[in-house]
Amino acid sequence: MIKVEGSFDNQPASLAELKVTAAHEWGHRLVGKARGAIVNITSVVRSGSTLGYNIIAPNPSRGIKEQFLDSLVSFFGGEAAEEAIGHTDQRGCGSDIFQAWRQAELISRFFYNGSVAAGDIISWGRSTARSIVYDYGINHLKDRALGLMERQAIV
Ligand SMILES: [Zn+2]
Predict the structure, then answer these.
(1) pLDDT single digits (tens) 67-121
(2) What separation in Å is there between the alpha carbon of 143 and the centre of ligand 1?
(3) Has residue 49 been placed in a domain?
(4) 64, 1, 65, 63: which is closest to 32 by C-alpha?
(5) Is residue 97 part of a domain?
(6) Could you read off the pLDDT of 125-135 as tens digits, one per residue?
(7) How many domains does the chain have?
Protein backbone atom coordinates (compact mmCIF):
# COMPACT_ATOMS: atom_id res chain seq x y z
CA MET A 1 0.00 0.00 0.00
CA ILE A 2 3.04 2.22 0.16
CA LYS A 3 3.42 4.22 -3.00
CA VAL A 4 7.07 4.76 -3.73
CA GLU A 5 7.51 5.28 -7.44
CA GLY A 6 7.08 8.40 -9.50
CA SER A 7 9.32 10.82 -7.66
CA PHE A 8 12.82 11.34 -6.37
CA ASP A 9 14.25 12.10 -2.98
CA ASN A 10 13.99 15.72 -1.91
CA GLN A 11 12.20 16.75 -5.06
CA PRO A 12 8.79 18.29 -4.45
CA ALA A 13 5.92 16.37 -5.96
CA SER A 14 3.89 18.18 -8.59
CA LEU A 15 0.27 19.00 -7.82
CA ALA A 16 -0.84 16.41 -10.37
CA GLU A 17 1.36 13.79 -8.72
CA LEU A 18 -0.03 14.67 -5.29
CA LYS A 19 -3.60 14.28 -6.57
CA VAL A 20 -2.84 10.82 -7.92
CA THR A 21 -1.13 9.83 -4.68
CA ALA A 22 -4.06 11.10 -2.61
CA ALA A 23 -6.59 9.21 -4.74
CA HIS A 24 -4.40 6.09 -4.63
CA GLU A 25 -4.11 6.14 -0.85
CA TRP A 26 -7.80 6.98 -0.41
CA GLY A 27 -8.54 4.00 -2.65
CA HIS A 28 -6.68 1.67 -0.29
CA ARG A 29 -8.49 3.22 2.66
CA LEU A 30 -12.01 2.96 1.26
CA VAL A 31 -11.52 -0.56 -0.09
CA GLY A 32 -9.95 -1.72 3.17
CA LYS A 33 -12.83 -0.27 5.18
CA ALA A 34 -15.41 -1.74 2.80
CA ARG A 35 -13.85 -5.15 3.49
CA GLY A 36 -14.13 -4.59 7.23
CA ALA A 37 -10.44 -3.89 7.81
CA ILE A 38 -9.21 -1.47 10.45
CA VAL A 39 -7.55 1.57 8.89
CA ASN A 40 -5.35 3.38 11.39
CA ILE A 41 -3.91 6.09 9.19
CA THR A 42 -3.89 7.29 5.59
CA SER A 43 -1.05 9.65 4.79
CA VAL A 44 0.34 11.58 1.86
CA VAL A 45 3.22 12.95 3.91
CA ARG A 46 6.34 12.38 1.86
CA SER A 47 9.24 10.53 3.36
CA GLY A 48 12.22 9.96 1.10
CA SER A 49 10.93 8.18 -1.99
CA THR A 50 7.63 7.23 -0.30
CA LEU A 51 4.75 9.43 -1.44
CA GLY A 52 2.04 8.06 0.79
CA TYR A 53 0.94 5.09 2.80
CA ASN A 54 -1.87 3.42 4.71
CA ILE A 55 -1.68 1.37 7.84
CA ILE A 56 -4.41 -1.22 7.50
CA ALA A 57 -4.99 -4.16 9.82
CA PRO A 58 -7.30 -7.00 8.92
CA ASN A 59 -10.39 -7.40 11.05
CA PRO A 60 -9.67 -10.14 13.62
CA SER A 61 -13.37 -10.89 13.98
CA ARG A 62 -13.37 -12.26 10.45
CA GLY A 63 -12.02 -15.70 9.64
CA ILE A 64 -8.39 -16.16 8.69
CA LYS A 65 -9.19 -16.89 5.05
CA GLU A 66 -11.45 -13.80 4.87
CA GLN A 67 -8.70 -11.67 6.40
CA PHE A 68 -6.29 -12.84 3.70
CA LEU A 69 -8.87 -12.12 1.00
CA ASP A 70 -9.68 -8.69 2.52
CA SER A 71 -6.01 -7.83 2.48
CA LEU A 72 -5.66 -8.97 -1.12
CA VAL A 73 -8.58 -6.79 -2.22
CA SER A 74 -7.12 -3.82 -0.30
CA PHE A 75 -3.89 -4.07 -2.29
CA PHE A 76 -5.90 -3.25 -5.44
CA GLY A 77 -7.62 -0.21 -3.92
CA GLY A 78 -4.87 2.16 -5.05
CA GLU A 79 -4.85 0.88 -8.61
CA ALA A 80 -8.65 0.95 -8.82
CA ALA A 81 -8.76 4.54 -7.56
CA GLU A 82 -6.08 5.68 -10.03
CA GLU A 83 -8.04 4.06 -12.84
CA ALA A 84 -11.27 5.70 -11.63
CA ILE A 85 -9.76 9.20 -11.78
CA GLY A 86 -8.39 8.50 -15.26
CA HIS A 87 -4.73 8.05 -14.36
CA THR A 88 -3.56 5.41 -16.80
CA ASP A 89 0.16 5.21 -15.96
CA GLN A 90 -0.05 2.80 -13.05
CA ARG A 91 3.64 2.00 -12.65
CA GLY A 92 3.38 3.43 -9.14
CA CYS A 93 1.16 0.47 -8.20
CA GLY A 94 3.94 -2.03 -8.84
CA SER A 95 4.74 -2.86 -5.23
CA ASP A 96 1.03 -3.30 -4.44
CA ILE A 97 0.63 -5.73 -7.32
CA PHE A 98 3.77 -7.62 -6.33
CA GLN A 99 2.44 -8.00 -2.77
CA ALA A 100 -1.00 -8.98 -4.09
CA TRP A 101 0.58 -11.80 -6.10
CA ARG A 102 2.45 -13.10 -3.08
CA GLN A 103 -0.81 -12.98 -1.10
CA ALA A 104 -2.72 -14.72 -3.91
CA GLU A 105 -0.13 -17.50 -4.07
CA LEU A 106 -0.45 -18.06 -0.32
CA ILE A 107 -4.26 -18.10 -0.53
CA SER A 108 -4.17 -20.54 -3.44
CA ARG A 109 -1.80 -22.89 -1.64
CA PHE A 110 -3.11 -22.80 1.91
CA PHE A 111 -6.85 -22.26 1.50
CA TYR A 112 -7.54 -23.99 -1.82
CA ASN A 113 -4.73 -26.56 -2.04
CA GLY A 114 -3.87 -25.09 -5.41
CA SER A 115 -7.30 -25.87 -6.90
CA VAL A 116 -7.90 -22.14 -7.46
CA ALA A 117 -5.07 -20.50 -9.40
CA ALA A 118 -3.34 -17.42 -8.00
CA GLY A 119 -4.17 -15.62 -11.25
CA ASP A 120 -7.88 -16.23 -10.72
CA ILE A 121 -7.61 -14.90 -7.17
CA ILE A 122 -5.83 -11.82 -8.55
CA SER A 123 -8.60 -11.26 -11.11
CA TRP A 124 -11.24 -11.58 -8.40
CA GLY A 125 -9.37 -9.20 -6.07
CA ARG A 126 -8.88 -6.59 -8.78
CA SER A 127 -12.51 -6.65 -9.91
CA THR A 128 -13.79 -6.60 -6.32
CA ALA A 129 -11.68 -3.51 -5.55
CA ARG A 130 -12.91 -1.83 -8.75
CA SER A 131 -16.54 -2.51 -7.81
CA ILE A 132 -16.03 -1.00 -4.36
CA VAL A 133 -14.39 2.13 -5.81
CA TYR A 134 -17.02 2.64 -8.52
CA ASP A 135 -19.85 2.06 -6.02
CA TYR A 136 -18.25 4.70 -3.81
CA GLY A 137 -18.37 7.13 -6.73
CA ILE A 138 -15.65 8.92 -8.66
CA ASN A 139 -16.69 12.42 -7.50
CA HIS A 140 -16.84 11.25 -3.91
CA LEU A 141 -13.36 9.75 -4.31
CA LYS A 142 -12.00 12.99 -5.80
CA ASP A 143 -13.51 15.07 -2.98
CA ARG A 144 -12.00 12.83 -0.33
CA ALA A 145 -8.63 12.79 -2.07
CA LEU A 146 -8.59 16.61 -2.08
CA GLY A 147 -9.43 16.59 1.62
CA LEU A 148 -6.56 14.20 2.24
CA MET A 149 -4.21 16.50 0.30
CA GLU A 150 -5.23 19.42 2.51
CA ARG A 151 -4.92 17.54 5.78
CA GLN A 152 -1.89 15.42 4.74
CA ALA A 153 -2.94 12.55 6.98
CA ILE A 154 -6.22 11.17 8.27
CA VAL A 155 -6.57 8.84 11.22
ZN1 LIG B 1 -0.61 1.49 -2.96
Answers:
(1) 999 999 999 999 999 999 999 888 878 889 999 999 999 999 999 999 999 999 9
(2) 19
(3) yes
(4) 1
(5) yes
(6) 999 999 999 99
(7) 1
Domain of residue 82: give its range: 15-154
Instruction: List residues, by chain if needed, whose CB lies under 5 Å from ion ligand 1.
Output: 1, 3, 78, 96
Query: 76 alpha carbon to ligand 1 midpoint, in Å?
Result: 8
Cα–Cα distance between 85 and 42 in angstroms, integer?
18
CA–CA gap between residue 6 and residue 82 (Å, rounded): 13
48 C-alpha to ligand 1 centroid (Å): 16
CATH number of the domain encompassing residue 63: 1.20.58.760
Q: Is 48 contained in some domain?
A: yes
C-alpha 21 to ligand 1 mean position (Å): 9
- Percent residues over pLDDT 70 in the chain: 92
For residue 14, the CA-to-ligand 1 centroid distance in Å is: 18
Work out the angle at residue 154's Cα, subtended by the Cα atoms of residues 148 and 155, and round it to the nearest 5 degrees: 165
